Amino acid sequence: xxxxxxxxxxxxxxxxxxxxxxxxxxxxxxxxxxxxxxxxxxxxxxxxxxxxxxxxxxxxxxxxxxxxxxxxxxxxxxxxxxxxxxxxxxxxxxxxxxxxxxxxxxxxxxxxxxxxxxxxxxxxxxxxxxxxxxxxxxxxxxxxxxxxxxxxxxxxxxxxxxxxxxxxxxxxxxxxxxxxxxxxxxxxxxxxxxxxxxxxxxxxxxxxxxxxxxxxxxxxxxxxxxxxxxxxxxxxxxxxxxxxxxxxxxxxxxxxxxxxxxxxxxxxxxxxxxxxxxxxxxxxxxxxxxxxxxxxxxxxxxxxxxxxxxxxxxxxxxxxxxxxxxxxxxxxxxxxxxxxxxxxxxxxxxxxxxxxxxxx
Amino acid sequence: xxxxxxxxxxxxxxxxxxxxxxxxxxxxxxxxxxxxxxxxxxxxxxxxxxxxxxxxxxxxxxxxxxxxxxxxxxxxxxxxxxxxxxxxxxxxxxxxxxxxxxxxxxxxxxxxxxxxxxxxxxxxxxxxxxxxxxxxxxxxxxxxxxxxxxxxxxxxxxxxxxxxxxxxxxxxxxxxxxxxxxxxxxxxxxxxxxxxxxxx
Lengths: 360, 200
Prior knowledge:
The structure holds two protein chains of two kinds. By secondary structure, chain A is of the alpha/beta class. Chain A has a single domain (10-359), classed as Ribonuclease Z/Hydroxyacylglutathione hydrolase-like (Metallo-beta-lactamase, Chain A, 4-Layer Sandwich), CATH 3.60.15. Helices cover 26% and strands 26% of the residues of chain A. Chain A is built from eleven helices and 19 strands. Chain A has helices at residues 48-55, 60-63, 74-77, 80-86, 101-113, 123-134, 171-184, 229-236, 259-265, 286-293, 312-320, and strands at residues 10-17, 23-28, 33-36, 64-69, 91-95, 143-146, 151-155, 162-166, 206-210, 213-217, 243-247, 266-274, 277-278, 282-283, 298-301, 326-329, 336-343, 350-354, 358-359. In chain A, strands 6-5-4-3-2-1-17-18 form an eight-stranded mixed sheet. Chain A has an eight-stranded mixed sheet with strand order 7-8-9-10-11-12-15-19. In chain A, helix 4 (80-86) packs parallel to helix 6 (123-134). Chain B is α+β, with helices and mostly antiparallel strands. Chain B has helices at residues 39-46, 65-72, 170-186, and strands at 10-12, 84-100, 103-110, 118-123, 139-148, 154-162. In chain B, strands 1, 2, 3, 4, 5 and 6 form a six-stranded antiparallel sheet that branches. Classes of the chains: A alpha/beta, B alpha+beta. At the A-B interface, helix 5, helix 6, strand 6, strand 7 and helix 11 of A face helix 1, strand 2, strand 3, strand 4 and strand 5 of B.
């Protein structure tokens, strides 16, 4: 049953994703939860992570310990401010690259440039920053920053030691980000717009441990460039154990793959879970599938890679758009759910797929 | 999600057009929207009319009879010649996500009604004379109008234009950068230490 809560000694990795967007929920033992990224179910008009936690009767006001925004792309942060708003005891974590004055300035400039428009790449961050400013706590920090090798969460008070480590971004990636953000600040007399800057090399990959259970969440981390991405992770991170569950980086694309991930960080034939990306290019493509299946026979995706048939609502809206609009599509579709669970001391991982989730 | 299209009726004073026309801003705006499976539905929604089962559209007690008759009478008898009227309008805004091969891709969100966000392609030439300035990240507006022609027939017209948002002033930038520096300094207190958890 989807509504059965995990046992106290269970590591759960739940991956949600429509055709564009993803969110990971982690039960890290003893009723503690961590949320990584966020997506929105346009069909049902809800946040699938919050809906799932409500179905499990999880009290989000006390049980959510950390919310991680791996990077500032709209397929990863849609609705993340809603999760943070619902979880007042959680720490919001983003890349250290987003702590610069330039990033704060870009969020404010975008608010001015897009005033009154439903187009806001950084609006979720602005809302989160306002919530952080409104929250003060002596017990924990409402906000934290991630960089390579930083321990984001460590708690030995539960049934087993629990730990979450940021594997990225590297120092070089941080420096590159500073330069890119500074370059994106407009100058006087420039056209009134703001470019969204946040390359995937800045994404936060996470190493999750509960007792003897380990998972690797790859975000959208890229293989390089030199000193960045997976190259930097593999050069600096040497775990004692390998991960049995892998949230495949960048929707299975070759642009998120590095052979060292599979040989150095993952157990033999791990459980691979991923979300599709229905953009201009559909990810993962056939070559991506072949590559993933060359490493494991257990690969699961939250929804079909192909675009779904249009709902009645979408067909109506499409008709309203008139004759100038061509090739109208709604890439999001229904949000699927892949759930992976295993209890400490056991070896059998249970994989469950809730429609439209399917085997890759 | 329920539609909330509003009813508007505005006279158009110029003569009806007979083919693709050019708006005051120079864009190609006119195209006849031939009947589709959504045609009647679209008219009803745009004019905010709900047809009641068994009730004649010409029922004198039906306060919306004129508009409903408008949608249904064209094929029964030719109505008297009247001025063109806009009987419905919808607007969307969207950011350009891609431009290639003379095609721009836009993620469109409704501005004046409830509806899903959609992705659509448009010919870049539709943005003329601004087409050469369009870049990824720029905002475009799409407006569609349902127009009742002089002979009672309905046409849908569409208009795509690039948003001209002006330029940043030195004062605007100075103010934002100053506030951002202050906020960044205030957030420095979150940089140190393990983020969460207890080490025992």
